[in-house]
Hints:
This protein is mainly α. It contains four helices and no strands. It starts with 17 loop residues before the first helix and ends with a helix.
Amino acid sequence: xxxxxxxxxxxxxxxxxxxxxxxxxEIFRRVESLKVACYGSGPAPFDGFQSLLDYVQHHFATEExxxxxxxxxxxxxxxxxxxxxxxxxxxxxxxxxxxxxxHSFLRYAEYWFERHINEEDKPFxxxxxxxxxxxxxxxxxxxL
Length: 144
């Protein structure tokens, strides 16, 4: 069964920071790939699940770098990231121990990530854009 995974990030979840939007797309693509891999009764691809969490961690580091480069406040957002990773790792551990099935983990991860983008990343992106605009304004005034 071949499934097209191009463009799985809903347009409503775009935050207008291209590097971050690209990574969000990749996270949703990985979740969808895991859904396809887990369809049926074959063994769960735990390396794929771990790869997903590793990529989420990489994504969070990218957001931190973007915030730092823009001069945007990030301390509270970083706390949310740490807590999210802790919860996702715990949930994956439950899957590995047979206390949660892979499908419930993937539904949870997808719902969590969509909520995270709407509630935390959209305001974060607005803050980054505002900091970039302020820096550009200061640079423009300084060059006069």
